Amino acid sequence: MNRCAKVAVCSRSFSMNPVLRQELLNEFDYVTFNDQGSSLSGNELVNFLQGHDGAIIALEVISRDILAALPNLKVIGKYGVGLDKLDLQAMEDQGVRLGWTPGVNAQAVAELTLGLALNIIRKIPQGYRSVQDGRWQQIKGRQLSSLTFGLIGCGHVGKAVVNLLKPFGCQILVNDIEDYADFYLKNELERVSLESLISQSDVVSLHVPLNDSTRLMINERAVGLFKPGSYLINTARGGLVDECAALRALNSGRLAAAAFDVLEIEPPVSADLIQHPNVFVTPHIAGSSEEAILAMGRAAIKGLSNHQPAGAFSKYQ
Question: Is 276 one of the catalytic residues?
Answer without folding.
Answer: no
